Amino acid sequence: MATQETQAAPRLHTLILQRKTLAIGLFVLFVIALLAVLAPWVAPHSPSRLSIVNRLRPPGGAWLFGTDEFGRDVLSRTIYAGQLSLVVGAAATAFACVVGITLGIVAGFFRKADAVMSRLVDAMMAFPDILLAIALVAALGPSLATVIVALGIVYAPRLARIVRASTLVIRELPYVEAARALGVPTWRIMTRHVLRNLISPILVQATFIFAYAMLAEAGLSFLGVGVSPEIPTWGTMIASGRQYIGQADWMTVFPGVAIVLTVLSLQLVGDGLRDLLDPRLRKDL
């Protein structure tokens, strides 16, 4: 058994390295996450330290990314902002997965609930993502938790439709019919026989939702309806720097580059995982 596991690990490692997009995406995402986690030790300055004398300093010298309107180091704030930006994206993705998987499995497994769930999902997807998020944040009140819940609700229907479509196919398979004939409880069939076969599409879609959630958080913060401006995220940094775009463009460029790199790496990971986990695309197995 141990020998088989030892042989399987290098094969997975080899498969990842063979897909350059997946390997590059994982590497970039790992570096960004590592910098965010090690922010207290990596950041050269405190993100909240004010220095009016050094306000709007261009990049160079002791300020590699320059300073903002209050003299705070943009590099340190970019590194620290990555913590909350990643947390918001991850938490919104987790919330969307819980809601989307639940709605999708219930709609796909129970015929009576399918019509109601499908119409609810269609109604939610009829609204543009950013408008629905703004409406939810306005109704619930702007806060970090509200943004996470709003983004989770906005992107849950994407996952629900995928899970529902796959569940409709899986529930008709022979082993599910056999489990029903043997008297296996419905919840056990849904978790052990249906959900376990949905891990691949859920994992791939979760990476895309992660990227969408981070972009949406930045958009909400830019519009002034997201996270409080006192909380450093890449979105709030871009929102505060737009007033100085003509004289201190580095205030928006560097957090914008951080968002682009993170979202791009997540997209690469999602595409690579789709190719790796889809047996129709994985020709080398």
So, the CATH homologous superfamily? Answer: MetI-like
Mean pLDDT: 82
Largest sheet: none
N-to-C SSE string, H for helix and E for strand: HHHHHHHHHHHH
Short note summarizing the structure:
This protein has 285 residues and is an all-alpha fold. The chain has one domain: MetI-like fold. It is built from twelve helices and no strands.
Primary descriptors:
single chain, 285 residues, mainly alpha, MetI-like fold
Structure, explained:
The protein has twelve helices and no strands. Helix 2 packs across helix 12, helix 4 packs parallel to helix 7 and helix 7 packs antiparallel against helix 10. It is elongated, with a radius of gyration of 22 Å. The two termini are 20 Å apart. It has 285 residues and is mostly helical. It has one domain: MetI-like (MetI-like fold, Orthogonal Bundle).
Topology of helices and strands:
Blueprint: H1 2-18, H2 20-37, H3 39-42, H4 74-109, H5 111-125, H6 129-140, H7 144-170, H8 174-181, H9 186-194, H10 199-223, H11 234-241, H12 250-277
